[in-house]
Amino acid sequence: MTSELTYRRHEHQPTSNIYSPKPSKPWSITIRPIRYILHEQRLIFTLIGIVLATFFFILIPSSTTNKPMSRPTQLLNPRPVFNTNRYNSGGKIPLGLKRKGLRVLVTGGAGFVGSHLVDRLIERGDSVIVVDNFFTGNKENVMHHFGNAGFELIRHDVVEPLLLEVDQIYHLACPASPVHYKFNPVKTIKTNVVGTLNMLGLAKRVGARFLLTSTSEVYGDPLQHPQVETYWGNVNPIGVRSCYDEGKRTAETLTMDYHRGAGVEVRIARIFNTYGPRMCIDDGRVVSNFVAQALRKEPMTVYGDGKQTRSFQYVSDLVVGLMRLMEGEYVGPFNLGNPGEFTMLELAQVVQETIDPNAKIEFRPNTEDDPHKRKPDITKAKDLLGWEPKVELRKGLPMMVSDFRQRIFGDHKDNDAAISSSF
Ligand SMILES: NC(=O)c1ccc[n+]([C@@H]2O[C@H](COP(=O)([O-])OP(=O)(O)OC[C@H]3O[C@@H](n4cnc5c(N)ncnc54)[C@H](O)[C@@H]3O)[C@@H](O)[C@H]2O)c1
After folding, report:
1. pTM listed for this prediction
2. Atom of ligand 1 nearest to the CA of 138
3. What is the pLDDT of residue 140?
4. Which of 203, 238, 283, 408 could form a disulfide linkage to 210, CB 3.0–4.6 angstroms apart?
């Protein structure tokens, strides 16, 4: 066997031991190194091929899809927007399971604004989870979604942590009317600070986009009129309204810190006075107060001289603004309100026109820290979100009156039609 192998090896050996190079061709001097590389350095070529392919697949797609941000975005977002592919944040879906639509968490979703927002999200086809402790909200506001597979309601206080898999978080949980937020001020500031921290922590953990519903109260008793988002406000840090005003200011700070520090995608809305169906009756907010009093044939209470001004936004306009902000590319903050300005006396007059021309007005001393003027400058929302309110006070008020009449007197006539026609 050995001899056979030895024999075969020798078969291919040149018969002569004398080395005789082939005659060189004129072009062979330049071609030879290339031929050498081609024939003998295959491994190197394979490696070069792998490196080129890696560059091609990694660099080229990302440079075409990640378009540079527009200049306004760069100015508004202290950092670039993160996790733009949030709808697919769950990674690969195992075989046999269908990819679900957008999963949206609405904290405070059983309240006035929250319940209208939930209606709109469900209508759009999203899966909605409402988290609410029912302090000022109630189940009746969302009961019409019970039985819908895309709707879940969880009784939970946002001051306690919670883990849910969602793509977006609308964070509304917080009592909004002075009567309610002054009822337990320590709880109010806890809701704003600890509750917001918990929801931001959740957003960070699951890669969800987070929208904070802040308030025009962050401007306090403003020294600038109308209020633009760049105005830092005139706020009393130790007054009876501070649990709400300073609570919301801290919530904004936390939101921006999670954005800058942890890369959470955030949005901030500063909401101005909003009214509409499902507002708490007797919650001390001026529109609900006037409407309920006029319906019950009680005098409408005007605090102070009635010359303080407010703007009144119909709830459907606000919901459109919130959704546009959430879906848009700008962090904010954005003023969302109706720039139409009314004195309290003018508002009382509109209520008289709508409900009862003989309704009386009663003057009472003004409450502490009540701002004198409030009117949003909504230029930023108009320019960057393409949003502005559409419903005038004289058109929106009758829809609210119809809902209040039904809840106060149990008169069902026209109520459902009024709520749905508002969108
Ligand atoms: N409506 C307005 O005019 C207005 C103006 C400015 C800002 N906002 C903001 O919009 C949001 C919604 O306001 P709204 O008018 O619908 O008020 P609302 O009181 O009707 O709704 C708040 C909801 O949050 C729930 N909630 C309160 N504390 C909670 C907690 N600790 N845990 C879980 N749920 C809790 C309540 O039960 C209620 O359902 C609030 O954050 C408010 O500050 C509203």
Report:
1. 0.77
2. 39
3. 94
4. 203
